[in-house]
Amino acid sequence: xxxxxxxxxxxxxxxxxxxxxxxxxxxxxxxxxxxxxxxxxxxxxxxxxxxxxxxxxxxxxxxxxxxxxxxxxxxx
Length: 76
Description:
1 helix; two-stranded antiparallel sheet
């Protein structure tokens, strides 16, 4: 599950953009739409010297597999 997968990274000191401070973005698509169940399969992890300022998923009708996850970051 994504909770167990993300925990490996957060235990090592990384910070994730998905399923954290910015919410849970379901990034598994079906028929051009995010699946109704929360599947935050994709993530962006950063080291502590990088701050995630904003994160969001991009959903477009032509996507039929994964949504795009983007993040604004600040490097310290």
